[in-house]
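Input sequence (224 aa), recorded before submission:
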Amino acid sequence: MSEVIQGFDSCPSWAPAFGYLGASLCMIFASWGSAWGTWRAGLGVCHMGIDHPAGIIKTIVPIVMAGVLGIYGLIVSVIITQAVAPPSQGDGYNTYSTFNAYTHLAAGLCCGLSCLAAGGTIGILGDVGVRAFGLTAEHGNKWFWDPAALEAAGHHHGGADGEDDGGAAAVAAPIMSNRNAAESANKLYVGMLIMLIFSEALALYGLIVALILSQHNYLCSSGN
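Predicted structure, token format:
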């Protein structure tokens, strides 16, 4: 039996349950954040691909960054799982302490919840960012807005003297010039990348703290 101090067992048989709980919660929350970010950002990329098909590959960055969150959870979960010590051979005494159990639970929650928060942030920013980027790159025109067709309709419905009244031409004209649209789209893309990088940093902070927590160990001596 493990060492008992004033009625408290420092290495009870249920201690590994909290260690494995920390590993599972880390993987669950990290995968949740990764799926959430991929879902939201993916919707934005698909929607943007209708208005600006040339920018699909360029705006795939939020999806990649959301997918990395699952790797963070996998790393911490594997470290915690390998640190859960099985009962000693022969006597079957448990050497995994409650100190390790609570530490690993805290490490798993730290990394998992950080990845969940980062995934939601990346998904929402990626969704809105890529849609705005595609709309800006296309001069503010939507996919159903065909300037050539509108201009032809304007000439067809022109004044009695055969001249165009200019109404349809004004509607069909781009909101922004090509040069201003490209410049504005590039600035918006750079700003979106900066916001995504700092959103990803939230998960990185949780990963670092989880790795530090997982280094703290206290094992009971077999046979105490």
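Checked by second reader. The radius of gyration is 28 Å.
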